[in-house]
Design brief:
Elements: H1 11-20, E1 24-28, H2 35-39, E2 46-49, H3 53-61, H4 65-71, E3 83-87, H5 96-104, E4 109-114, H6 118-122, E5 133-137, H7 151-157, H8 169-189, H9 197-209, H10 217-224, H11 228-240, E6 244-247, E7 264-267, H12 270-276, H13 285-307, E8 311-317, E9 323-330, E10 333-339, H14 351-359, E11 366-370, E12 376-377, E13 382-386
Parallel strand pairs: 1-4, 1-5, 2-3, 3-4, 10-11, 11-13
Antiparallel strand pairs: 6-7, 8-9, 9-10, 12-13
Length: about 400
């Protein structure tokens, strides 16, 4: 990001607002989503990056050092508490007890970042700072932050900040390949998350290929040759390491008793997904349509991460009948969203939206997101919406 003009992140205003209220903040995000750049814009009194081995080892040996160093920071002339940034804090989870003590005594406000929630959520005895931090998620750039000049390029190469300065598409592929390899080596092998890295590498390829589809654990277990419980554990690793987002189905219905209950996973970045799946850059129209569906889902998820914690993104599927790609669930108020790779929506494209609207009274309007140049009314309760306007729905 240092070779280009800084692109503002929507999350920054929310983080600053929390800090102004004397709240501490935990920012989760996958590697290279821009966490360090974002927190570097804050006026911090002490910054510790545990990516550096020398700093990490110093605090691993003596976690109490943090207490003394923060105690030595004086409040500002305006009475503001000192601000302390701990970057990649999951690498030294033992520090969180000291962080809690300092927060409880009002000695400082903290901004913590992490690219893996696994050690923080699943580590035995790890202090999760319940009720003491406001948790945010930083994603790759959304369309609202960085409009896509070329939709197909965004579907193929994603929107990681580090790739924006790479003009050559072949070089983008090289960097994405390095990202996937680094993830396997550093996140999986270094943390000893799996016994057989080869099995996990094969799983990662298949999971990337199946991104956006209903998960069938037993089929994947047969393809890879490991148990279905192991496949489930592998998916939890992807989720904890922020590589994949788990999407739960909407299962409540007064009339349908066979709604799908299995979840699906969507890779956090479509460029990483494509390279992990070992797919080339020349894709069929059907494949582009499937990626477009995931792209819209990711945009909805990113909007939900920034805007309101009350919003969840789901899907709806009856194996014997209709299905809707995405459901915006705002505390039981539903907005169905169907996605089509078309510039000319037809009546048949909205029939499942009409079914959903008739079955759920809380749903007032449905949307068909496609490549139309501007919004258009397709029926009494369904509108066609340009994909560039997706953020207006959340």
């Amino acid at each position: 990001m240092d070779t280009m003009k800084y692109i503002p992140r929507l999350l920054e205003a929310h983080i600053r607002h929390a800090l102004a209220r004397n709240k501490s903040v935990l920012v989760f995000g996958a590697r290279q989503t821009g966490k360090t750049t974002l927190v570097g814009r804050l006026d911090a009194d002490l910054v510790l990056s545990f990516v550096r081995p020398d700093i990490r080892q110093r605090y691993e040996k003596s976690p109490q050092l943090l207490l003394g160093e923060v105690e030595a920071l004086a409040p500002t002339a305006a009475g503001r508490r000192p601000l302390v940034v701990l970057d990649e804090v999951q690498k030294v989870p033992g520090l969180l007890d000291a962080v809690q003590d300092l927060i409880d005594r009002g000695r400082a406000n903290f901004v913590l970042t992490g690219s893996s929630a696994r050690k923080l959520r699943r580590g035995a005895g790890v202090n999760l700072l319940p009720g003491r931090v406001t948790v945010f998620t930083l994603d790759p750039f959304s369309v609202r932050e960085l409009p896509a000049r070329d939709l197909t390029e965004r579907l193929l190469y994603g929107s990681l900040p580090g790739l924006l300065t790479v003009p050559n598409l072949a070089d983008k592929d090289t960097d994405l390949e390095s990202y996937v390899t680094t993830y396997l080596e550093e996140e999986v092998r270094a943390e000893a998350l799996v016994r057989q890295l080869g099995d996990f590498a094969r799983f990662l390829e298949l999971a990337a290929s199946e991104s956006g589809r209903i998960v069938h654990l037993r089929k994947l277990s047969q393809d890879i040759g490991v148990s279905h419980t192991t496949i489930g554990a592998y998916y939890r690793i992807l989720e904890d390491c922020l590589i994949a987002e788990r999407i739960e189905p909407l299962t409540r219905s007064a009339t349908r008793h066979k709604l799908t209950k299995s979840e699906k996973y969507v890779f956090f970045d479509l460029g990483v997904r494509r390279v992990a799946a070992r797919e080339g850059a020349k894709l069929s129209r059907d494949t582009l349509g499937r990626l477009f569906e995931q792209f819209i889902g990711l945009e909805l998820i990113r909007c939900a991460h920034v805007k309101r914690h009350t919003v969840r993104i789901r899907f709806w599927r009856d194996p014997d009948g209709p299905e809707v790609d995405w459901i915006i669930d705002d505390q039981g108020v539903y907005t169905p969203v169907e996605v089509k790779w078309t510039e000319h929506p037809a009546p048949g494209d909205i029939r499942h939206l009409d079914v959903f609207l008739s079955e759920y009274p809380s749903a007032k309007r449905g949307y068909l997101v496609c490549q139309v140049p501007r919004a258009a009314k397709l029926s009494d309760r369904v509108w066609a919406l340009p994909w560039q306007s997706i953020a207006t729905l959340v």
